[in-house]
Amino acid sequence: MDLAVDITSSCRVRVLLVPVSPIKKSSFWRHVELVRKFNTVRLGDVTPDLHKGANAKFSSQVFQEGQMHFQFVTKYNRDHSHLEDFQPHRRIFGVIGIMDCQEWKDKDLSEGYKEFVDMLVQYPTAVATRCFAFDPTENQPDDTKGLIMIPNVGNMSFYMSTMICDFASEILDQFATIAGRIENLKGLESPIPLGAFPRRYEVPNNVVIPQPSTSSPNIKTQQQANNRASQPVPTPSVSSSFLKRASSAAGSSRPTTIASPPSPRPSLSRSTTFSNLVHGGEGNKTIQRTPGRIKKLLADFYLLAGRLPDAIQFYNEAIDMTKSHSDYLWLASAKEGLACTMLLMSFLQVDVGHIISRNTAPNDSAAITSTHTSKPPPNSDKIGLDNQKSILSEITEMYEDVVQTYAKVGTTTNIPMPSLVFAEACLKLSRFLVLVFLNNGWNDTVLAKVVHADMGDLSQRKEKFLTMSDLVKCKDSGITRYSIAKYVTKVWTVDVDELSMMDQINIMTHMSSLLSVIGYHRKSAWFMYEMLNRMIPLLIQGRAAVASSLNKSNVHDGGALKILQDKFDETYQKQQGNAAKKTNTLGFGWPALQIDILRECIVISEAIQDHASMLYYTTVLLKNLYQYISKDEQIRLASSIQRIVNISKRSGQSENNVNYWGFNIVRSIEPIHPIPRKAIYQHPLLIAKALAASKEGRLNSGDPFIYNPFAKKKNDKPQINLIKDEVCEFKVSLSNPFGFDLELSNIILSTSGVEFSPVPAAATIPANDTLTIRLMGTPLETGALTIRGCIIKITGFAEQEFLNEKQKTEQVKEKENKVMSLVESKRHKYSGLQALYKAPTLDLDMRHDNAQESQYEQINVIEDQPLLKIKSSSLLHGAVMLFEGEMTRIHIQIENIGHIPVDFITLSFTDSTTNHPKLINPDLPPEEQYEIELYTKGTPVFSWEGSKADNNQIGKRISLGPKESTDIVVNIYGKQGCTGGAVYIDYGYLDRAIKGQEQESEQSNELPTTLYTRQLYFPVMITVYQHLEPLNWDVLYLRDNMTISKEAVDKAFEAVSKTKDQQGNSSDQRVEDLLLITQRSSDDNDKNPYCLLTLDVRNTWTVPYEVEFMIDNTETASENEILKYQVTIQPALTKRIVLPLKKLFLTSEQRLQPIPSFEPNKQFVVSQGPKMAPEQERAKLQMFWYRELLLDRVKSSWRCKTTGREGIIDLRSSLRLTPVQLNILKKQDIEFIVSMSDNQYTTGHRQFECPVNNFVAMNVTILNRQD
């Protein structure tokens, strides 16, 4: 029977709920839960006794705000029957039968009621009985006397409440009968434990005989004959029927029936005349102590009846009387009842208000009215709070006195103290203090939990280690853990071995649970170990007896081995959660002790021939503690597993094969990237939308940095997509921590989702080693493929699925990182069990892992893709030699070797200058950074027809069916410093993606589908030679002091034009002709707008080259003044080039523009150097933009007549302007032009002849070119 370990157990009236078969288990428990909802009945709602009224001994109207607390139980045994007269709350006062009318559709309900009546003989202490028939049908008649139909219609709660109130009224009526008999007792002895010492008991005439209720079939009274007048229906006639039964029960004319239990047991009522009790003065003492004991019993019944003021009065009288006679056992029990009564009074005072103390006079209770609420409202009154704290201290002190009083029982009597009562008192106080401790002190909520026996806090924290934050919170309760543990361990001061084995097990279970809740885990483990030691002998004897009687070698009864198994499952589940951290870490605990306990379990299992348990503990020992076991013992345990399996096979208790017994040998499963030729790349179809979405996301992020090293790193791991009907590979890592080899005869991938065809493999994992293998398979459908793990068959065992633990390991690593950050901030070390809850590992609570479902890696399987190969190319050995500035073409032939057509192709390129660009120092001047970026990104090496500047379309549409070929032309430019590059050919099936996009766009407005492409790689080795080198740039003034006729200018222009037409000749062009052409200028303001450019060109090669310079002197759109100058440079020679160039002019807006950049996402970096003056900054910008304009006006190309090669000359690298040259090159902002009014004096450009000593008119023109 369950122990009475709640501090308010004394106020609960036990009522047994029994099923009346046939009834389903689920239906029975559903109705049980319905009845248990009405476990508290307010006395004001109980049907009063109309005959006696308030004069009834246990009238419900005297203290209407009182409550009767029922404890509805579903099981009961007679183990504690010797204590029922000492503590009435242990007795079964009522029996309620539960019938399900749905199971009696074709049967007579009276038969079920008769079956219920026959069961009542087993419960002779029941004074009130009911039989409830739930869910009746319309066809079932309500004509069975004593059977109460509970229809599932209307206000069922009100109906059930009325039935329970009538049931409580009958119990109160029977309490009066029992109390009257108790008052007439001449002697009342203390309870004697079974087997304490032999004694013969006689049942006298005044023994308390339990009276059956009107529902008993053995009672034929007038009340039962009045056409169901005695049935508890919600009518006014109910109370009168109870009054009749109560009055007849008290009289002598009513027949009585004594029901004896099926086996001989001590009398249910220990009340006796003591005629045959022990000899000597013990009998006289008992007679003297009887009045105090009677007062105590009456107080117990008043407490059960909810009459709290009367209970307090009788308890105080009993305490005084028992204390005067040194009756310590009954004195301590009276104090327990008084403590329970005080708690209930405190609860009612909080609930109802101040309750005035009164005598038992019924007139005083008429003025008291109340309204019942299930939970008390919060009380903010300071006086009430102080009163509550005083109640806590008073209850604690009272129970401390109770424990000390129980310890004195043996000093004044020969009858031994019941050890169970002392143990329950210690547990009551401990559970009470623990509840206050966990709820941070005494308050109204704690009081409500104590009254309603709500111990959910204990069950919730049963297996949880107290953390530092929990200890800080519980510190405010004022209860120390030491004081709780002191009263828990006081149970051990009595001889626990005298109790029955089930009581010992229950007591130690409660002790272990309480110690674990307050963080005393070592003591808790010790009591758990003691509990298991007491269970094992019972288990071996019971299971061996059952096995021999049934002639079976394996019988499961859910005994101690089940508890051991649950305990070890719970312990090692945490260790398996930590196994991903380190393979050599067991966790907390003593491995040697754990090994010994597991060995004991194996021996016990072998003794009772429980092969399943023996196999379980052997596998647990080998799986979790292999690190602490020698290699020889590991091999022996592995062999014993096979032996146990073979024995089980012969006995027919096991399957042909068993699963592998070790831990998960699959450490990780990773998909392997395919070879570059078969790799898949994902591209959005509408790049504009994708770029806009990316840009918007970047702007909304609020981060001003393009690259922020402190930002959270994104997982840029490329996504792997599998292709339908193509073989894919996975890298599987297998681990063997044991001291012997594991032979795997069959290994395949375990998948779910789309259909997958795995390829089996075999391997052997060496001892204490890790093996990495490749597993292959082919997806047969498109969709999501889930990689669960591997299905492995170990030689000698059944095929078993091993799940992939990679994700779990990653979660543990993330938690480890959080813990390490806490460790760095709080470097405190603790030893022992304190490290479990004081170390900064709060985030590593594994309770979240149990709540989360296992998630496996999912891989997308796409449609089958086309496949190309490079069939041939125009390059020999993949290499090309170029001169600087030369442009050549190569041809690449590709072939479709797949069965999917190709309709889209695009090319991308890389070269050595872009793969490894020059590092740009942010402190460099902007013009130098521009030159580096122009060289790196502004001068491409490769180009093709799909990469034109005026073409916004990416790629090219082609039609390449299976087994067809096509050519691709790629241009290669000879870039100085380039040593090689590569051509990437991306191809795909665009039409299929567009059709899929159209279908999706009709269904949703999401981003379009993606295009999957594959890529071909064609490397090119490039060698670039510098053959022509420009150097020594200079800018000179061009002054014309002579007058040249128009005929000479036209002749020079004709000579230059003739040289253009005769480009095949190697004759050099005359510089004089170019200078004469400059005289054709029509500038009226300035007759000489030209300047001279000079530079040297050196031929460093072995063949001559023809070099052509083109000077663009066009200033307006209507002009077309382009001059060309050709010269042939022989090998190893240098020639001076003189070029006439019109002076340049830029507006202030043009020459003060910021220097551009080829990197649009270039990060702005504040310069560390000194800030430049505004004048210097404007001068540098002016120098930069005039240099750019000069390079735009002057172009140069070369041609080799012998080889036919041609290209351009890079003039940029050799051109460096100085401020002096810039002044010559540009037109001045303000210019003075001097002329004579009479043209007869003009002899040349700014040259005049005039007579001496004569006045002449001179005109000075001021030209302002500024904005």
TrEMBL record:
Residues 393-651 form the Trs120/TRAPPC9 TPR region domain. Residues 1032-1226 form the Trs120/TRAPPC9 third Ig-like domain. Residues 6-355 form the Trs120/TRAPPC9 N-terminal domain. It is found in: Golgi apparatus. Residues 230-241 have a biased composition (Low complexity). Signal peptide: none annotated. Residues 666-854 form the Trs120/TRAPPC9 first Ig-like domain. GO terms for cellular component: trans-Golgi network. Residues 207-288 are annotated as: Disordered. The keyword Signal does not apply. Keywords: Golgi apparatus. Residues 211-229, 249-259 have a biased composition (Polar residues). The keyword Aminoacyl-tRNA synthetase does not apply. Pfam families: Ig_TRAPPC9-Trs120_1st, Ig_TRAPPC9-Trs120_2nd, Ig_TRAPPC9-Trs120_3rd, TPR_TRAPPC9-Trs120, TRAPPC9-Trs120. This is Trs120-domain-containing protein. It comes from Rhizopus delemar (strain RA 99-880 / ATCC MYA-4621 / FGSC 9543 / NRRL 43880) (Mucormycosis agent).
